[in-house]
Amino acid sequence: MLSFFKNLWDSMDAEKQKRLFASKLEEEQRHLDTEIEKEESEKAKKGENFNMQNVLRCINDPQNGPLSSNEEDKCFERLGVITTLKSNHGTIDHAIFFDIDAAGGLASELKIGCHVKYLAYQQVHSDHIKVVQIKDVSELFWDETMPSTEKIEEQIAELRNEKPTFFSTHQRNILGLIMERKPGAIVVDTEHKLMNINLDTVEIDFIPQAGDRVFICCNVQSDEHFVNRQGEILQEVSVHPARLLKQEKCKVRRLNTDWGVLNDDCYFTFDVVPNTCKLDIGDIVLADLIECERDPYIWRCIKLSLLERTIPPATTSTITATSNNEVKKTVLNPRKDNNHAITVTEDARCIFSATFQTQRIEMVIKNNIERNMRVLSIDFLGRRRDSQIKLVDPDHDNTAFEIAANSSRTLVFEVESKFYGESREVFIIKFESFRVKRSIFIAVCETEAEAEAVRAQPNHITASTLNGGAQNLRQRSRHYANQVWSNKGEVIPGVGLATKRRFLSLRIPYYEVPERLRNAYLTSTSRQEMIDNVEGMFPCLKEELSLKNYTIRFETLVFLEEIEYFVNFRNYDRERAHFTRDGEFLSLTIENLSERRPSLVIGDTVRAINPWCNDDDKRSYDGVIHKVLFNRVLLKFNEGFQSKYNGEDYRLEFYYSRFAFRKQHFAVNRIIKHVGEQFLFPSRVHNREEPQLQIELDSDDNLILQDTTCPWFNPLLNPIQKRAIRNILRGETHNMPYIIFGPPGTGKTMTLVEIVLQLVKLLPSSRLLIGTPSNGSADLIATRLIDSKQLQPGDFVRLVSQNQIEKELVPEHLMPYCATVDMAADGTCDDSMIVTESGMKLRCQMKYLGRHRVTISTCTTLGNFLQMGFPPGHFTHVLIDESGQCTEPEVMVPMCLVSQKRGQVILAGDPHQLQAIVINRFASERGLSVSLLERILGRTPYLRDVMRFPDTSGFDPRLVTKLLYNYRSLPSILNVYSELFYDSELRAMVNEKNSREADMLKKLDVLLPVSEKRPKTHGIFFYGTRSENKQESDSPSWFNPLEARNVFLMTIKLYRQGIQPENIGIITPYMKQVKHLRTLFIEADIAMPKIGSVEEFQGQERDIILISTVRSSQKLIGSDLRHALGFVQSAKRMNVAISRARYLMFIFGNPHLLYLDHCWRSCIKYCVDNEAYLGCDLPDDFETRPELNENGAMMDETASK
């Protein structure tokens, strides 16, 4: 019994102690609340702003902490006390903030100390509480004085014991109409209320505008008191169009200053039209349409791409007069017809075999009526200074004369050939009440033989005549490739460059091409059958890219690219060939090896098959390529084959290394789990809890970190570059790529180098991977890092391939920083690293690589790290330069290596320049050529929204920076591509008065057309040439001999003015024209400037650029426009070409063909307006392109009297 009472007394004592402890804890809590209240009051006095927006942070205490540990959102109703009250917000129980709008009509009744019943909402995994509604107010203190702190604390303590009422929640879609678009919000009218939605707090997949019909996905209170169980709206989750039509085929009906109309019931604004797409009335587009209420339009276009360009028919015509003075339109070369009052000789032709030759042409004007007819004047159209004809009789200064009844008058013209190519000189014969138009066609050839051929009007080989044969050839190639792929038999491997490692930390699977896909692609008898077969097997190719089909879609596209690569590799195969001994190798001669595509590289294999072997011995032997020389390769076979080889003939098949494709497959299989939907398909901005670095820019653009100024490594950075670097260093967003949008000449690489140096310095824990699409780009970044003198060889490494070393492509100054990879797992083999005399480190294992602060290489070569077993989070940052030139699977290779939790990805590039080269047309059309950079810029958080971000070119600075300062071109050159492709935002930093570029251009004034109007620093000229583009029967590529001749002669003129070959670049879209131009220089034994395709010049610049557009025939213009051949309708290709020059650019082309494209028409008109056009005549309707009817055809002209 005593024991029982003792235990009872002890328990009572423990309970007393517990109450005492609780009392002290509550007293400490009240003290803490008071201190917080004072701190908030001080902040308010200092003018600090609170970001209320009804999102409230809960202080972590036992009463106001998370309400439940259940894994679901919480909606609850409870009582509380108003502890602070401002004009637009207040707090409940010291801890829970609310916006005054939550009180609605009760706002005027709120006072400090009064009780309120409030409805609140708390999301799972969040410490924030949002006060949705203040439902009731009860005032306990009736006098005017504010209640004391003690009384308020008593009330808070009393109410803490009351349990909240919980409600379940559910999601509901609420229809609405956007009434107003604000910079960062939309006002939506719904059946419930007018909702003000902050765009930063919801997911949204389009740029909203006033008038759009939407549905808002909301979390709502489940309240049993309502019939539909819907209580208060707790939180807006996402906003979507009420109706969406995707990829609708529409016709452009109307174009205004900043908006247009599709199909009569849909409108669009020009901000949804890609910069590289210029629309004309009648064009066919693919459009994404959303429902709107903008009378008379019921749809708004939110995304648009050009499907088919309207092709106006030829407009060459002439006008003659009938006997009753009516004007009648007839075709050129009209019949001699006496039914007209006046007849004039048909249009004339002059064919020359060289320049500076002359001919005389006579044209007869005949008066067919019984009264005199008076000629008022004979006027030449076009610029007289470029004309090749002049009127000899009558004198041009006195062209008025009379023609007697039933008589005639002869006009005599003198034609002098001034420049190569074709042109048409037009003149108008004015009578008193009508006019007659005639022209003289002039063709200046290089030889008499060519002139005779033109006179005979031969039919050149065109693509249409080649299509049948080319189709059959492609079909035979695919059939043969399938046969080779299907061959089975024992293969004896050759001797590789290095011993294969048996033990790897992670072995990448082989990812063999599925046989059914291979058969569907290679055995189909037509392209349409192939498309149907492939899409039938892989329906994902017809679907829009999504997280669900991401892996299988890109896997299939990469497989298709590999199939096409395999087909192209068959061009190397030989039915019979033999080897010759060359030391320890067998040598195989291959003609034109350096010019063949795809290229052979070290590691590729040649399979030797005995054509006379019996069925019992079908062994074949693989020889591994160890060296690639000018016109031969050196191979190593199995010792048994190589030692016994004695000059026999073998059938040869060539095979490429599949490792690059395997790395891409591995990456697309791994990336979803690694970075997730938020990274691949962003729909809203996700911020980190804390920035990566608490860094800011002061008023002088100095970098400030924790009150310390961090010096810029490059003091020449401009303000926009500095803002980009600041944004990246802060890294406010979580698991979202940052994009540096770098138009030509804006210092993108300079910005990237500064980012690397600052990250290395300010983030000691960082370890960076820098990936590029090409070795040239990687070498440039490595060189810039060396030039900065901030990093030593031990700080960064330039990872190279054995192929670069063997081809001697590694620049000498980079050799001490270069290394190759040995992928063997640590401890599984001896250390075989070799250090060369130049400082290169070969066969480096994991203990040497991956430890540097910075590793630079191509995206594909960085994939070697995938097999080396680096731990998660080993690399913290991935920077991709020229990311617009990489396919998405390529950039995913290094991204698989970055830390998911604290990593950062930076994509630098320009979506308006060339994309990645994809040789499989089917795969390219289904998105393989679209880079991650370009695709991400089409997602809502990255879309341009000028209303929301007016100070940063319309881009969210947390995600994108667009560089604008151009350091390359004179303003006259920059203006063209800035207006066409970059919203006229680029700012010229090259002074047009006091700069090297301006001075050099002035020295070349003697070569430029004479003009008093044209500014002295105008650097872009168009040389019109009407000539014939040709094809050879064995090649689909085009060339234009006369245009090439004009380019060659212009280069000679530049040489005579002291310009060096290295300062000139010649760009042309066709390899056949490249070869033709090179031949001209070689045959003339003249120093050759760099001549190449647009792809070869991307990322480069020259003082002077000469562009040969090649295409001149209008016969196939429809095909050119639809398939973007050459420069025609290929805006990205044009953009790269015209943005390479520093101070002078000559464009050679046919204006009669190029003017059909909006971009080229703008460029030509710019030259014409500045008197910088020379050469052939311009199209008659150049100034005003023919008006198109509702069917997209050119409307019939009616001549005026």
Please compute the radius of gyration using only Cα atoms: 38 Å
CATH architecture assignment name of the largest domain:
3-Layer(aba) Sandwich
Number of E-type strands: 60
Average of the residue pLDDT scores: 83
Q: Helical element count?
A: 26
Beta strand %? 25-35%
What does the largest sheet look like? 10 strands, mixed
Low-confidence stretches: 43-70, 313-338, 458-472, 1121-1125, 1186-1201
Indicate the percent of residues in helices.
Answer: 25-40%
Give the overall silhouette.
globular
- Return the structural class: alpha/beta
**Euclidean distance between termini CA atoms:** 132 Å
In CATH, the topology of the largest domain is named Rossmann fold
CATH superfamily label of the largest domain: P-loop containing nucleotide triphosphate hydrolases
The tally of structural domains comes to 7
Report the top-level CATH class of the largest domain.
Alpha Beta
Strand order of the largest sheet: 45-46-44-43-47-42-48-49-41-50
Family: Belongs to the DNA2/NAM7 helicase family. SDE3 subfamily.
Main location: cytoplasm
Protein name: RNA helicase
Domain DNA2/NAM7 helicase-like C-terminal: 957-1151
Question: In short, what is this structure?
Answer:
A hairpin with a 5-residue loop joins strand 38 and strand 39 (703-705).
Features:
1201 residues; P-loop_NTPase; 26% helix; OB fold (Dihydrolipoamide Acetyltransferase, E2P); eight-stranded mixed β-sheet; 7 domains; alpha/beta; ten-stranded mixed β-sheet; 60 strands
Structural commentary:
This protein is of the alpha/beta class and 1201 residues long. The protein folds into seven domains: 41-162, Nucleic acid-binding proteins (OB fold (Dihydrolipoamide Acetyltransferase, E2P), Beta Barrel), CATH 2.40.50; 169-241, OB fold (Dihydrolipoamide Acetyltransferase, E2P) (Beta Barrel); 244-308, Nucleic acid-binding proteins (OB fold (Dihydrolipoamide Acetyltransferase, E2P)); 317-455, Immunoglobulins (Immunoglobulin-like), CATH 2.60.40.10; 466-488 and 511-657, Elongation Factor Tu (Ef-tu), domain 3 (Beta Barrel); 738-963, Rossmann fold; 971-1170, Rossmann fold (3-Layer(aba) Sandwich), CATH 3.40.50.300. Helix 4 runs antiparallel to helix 5 and helix 7 (550-569) runs antiparallel to helix 9.
